[in-house]
Structure formats: C-alpha cells, structure tokens
Specification:
By secondary structure, this protein is an alpha/beta fold. The protein has 2 domains: 142 residues, Rossmann fold, CATH 3.40.50; 66 residues, Putative phosphatase, domain 2 (DNA polymerase, domain 1). Helix content is 43%, strand content 11%. The chain is built from 9 helices and 6 strands. It has a 6-stranded parallel β-sheet with strand order 3-2-1-4-5-6, sandwiched between helices. Helix 1 crosses helix 4. The longest helix has 18 residues. The N and C termini lie close together (7 Å). It binds 6-O-phosphono-beta-D-glucopyranose (BG6) and magnesium ion (MG).
Length: 223
C-alpha cells in the first residue's frame, strides 16, 4: 500500500498502558457476588472497553436482575469505590511492559499522541502512573456519550489532534475497542495475549516494538 502516512497514535488506557484490567475484573466480580453471580473470564472480555454503566447493565442481564435507575447509579458508585481502592497504591510499576519506551520514542519521532479511553478515571490513573503529560489530549469517559464499539472516543481524539482518521493508529486490548477503531476508519493494533479479530496487527506487549516495526507491519497488512 503506497501513500499511507501515520501521524497520530491513540492509546487505550486499561490493559494497554496501565495494568488495571484485572482490577476492574476484581471489582466487577465483587459486585456480581452480591447476587451470588460469578462473572466468568470470557464474560469479562465483553466488559473490556465499555462504560461503567453499560457494564452494570450487562452483568445484571447475565445475572437475571432487573435494576432501577437508582440501583444502577448506586452500583456504579460502589464499583468505582472498590476499583479506586484497588488503585490506591498504583505507581510507575503499573505501566505495562515496553509501552513507556514506545510512547517516548514515538513522541521524539514527531507522532502526535493521545489517549482514548472509556474510563472516567483515565486522568487520575495516568497521573498515578506519572505519564499524563506525555499526551496532547486524553479523551476519557467524561467526554463521550457512546461506548466502544462506537467510534466517538477515537474520532474525538483525532479531531483534537487535527488529524484525519486514516492517519491514526489505535492500540487496544479489547474487541470492542478494535471495532471502534475500524468504525472510526483508523488502523488498529491489538495488544495482549488474547487474539483480537480484524486488527491490522497484534502484539503481546510493547517490548521490542518500535515506530519502524509499526509502520512496516501496517504496510504489510495490506499486502
Ligand atoms: C474501560 C475498561 O477502559 O473503562 C472497563 O476496559 C471499564 O473495564 C471502563 O469498565 C470504564 O471505566 P471507569 O474507570 O470509568 O469505571
Ligand atoms: Mg482496554
């Protein structure tokens, strides 16, 4: 593929930059257990990337519960209190392998950098990790109406970076996030051990990954 030019990189937060996916899972498990419901690992995969409220609606459906708006709000608050408690002592050690170096290298090479996350805690978590100032813009769950796979969060990021969607790459650990990137008309790189469908390239983590490898893998994905 000729004439493709990558100018912007948009990183999901939970499970891509921050080692928080297991903490969201732990908090959701505790919420489900209140009803004697055990949230499975595969059900949890479906919760990755979607908003807190949409997650509660899914869990309630799986558990066969009908929740009023007030109960929903209350559970969202409880889940977040638990989650933030788990994150209390979080620091630079909770940055996932290789991603810090990758971000720094990409910044030096002139790529524009953004975060695109469903989490309303994104800024707090990035501050705890000490890397909130590495990004031109952090688009978080407070700035969007619709959950991934809707492309809103990534389109907003590209718009603020003043870039066209087709010059942006999204890094994601969730299937809903990969679908959001595709729906936005962006390239996507799946991150993690679980294979994600339809991304342009998949990496287990960022160790040894570089901007050069990124460009080469993306151009190969067209051939
Ligand atoms: C996503 C996570 O990034 O943010 C989900 O993958 C989480 O697990 C969602 O539920 C919302 O996060 P928060 O911090 O606003 O509850
Ligand atoms: Mg994620």
């Amino acid at each position: 593929m000729d004439n493709f030019e990558i100018k912007g990189l948009i990183f999901d937060l939970d499970g891509v930059i921050a080692d928080t996916a297991h903490l969201h899972y732990k908090a959701w498990c505790e919420i489900g257990q209140q009803w004697g419901f055990n949230l499975s690992i595969s059900q949890n995969e479906e919760l990755k990337g979607i908003s807190r409220k949409d997650s509660i609606i899914k869990i309630a459906n799986w558990a066969g519960r009908n929740l009023s708006e007030a109960e929903l709000e209350d559970l969202a608050k409880k889940k977040n209190e638990k989650y933030l408690k788990f994150c209390e002592n979080m620091g630079t050690g909770d940055i996932l392998p290789g991603v810090y170096d990758f971000i720094i290298t990409c910044g030096k090479k002139g790529f524009k950098l953004a975060v695109g996350s469903a989490s309303k805690n994104a800024k707090i978590i990035l501050q705890k990790l000490g890397i909130d100032d590495l990004f031109s813009i952090i688009v978080d769950g407070n700035m969007v109406e619709k959950s991934k796979p809707d492309p809103e969060v990534f389109l907003k990021g590209a718009e603020i970076l003043n870039l066209k969607p087709n010059s942006c790459v999204v890094f994601e650990d969730s299937q809903s996030g990969i679908q959001a990137a595709i729906n936005a008309g962006m390239f996507s790189v799946g991150v993690g051990q679980k294979h994600l469908e339809s991304c342009n390239h998949m990496i287990e983590n960022f160790n040894g990954f570089s901007p050069e490898k990124l460009i080469s893998k993306l151009s190969n994905s067209f051939n």
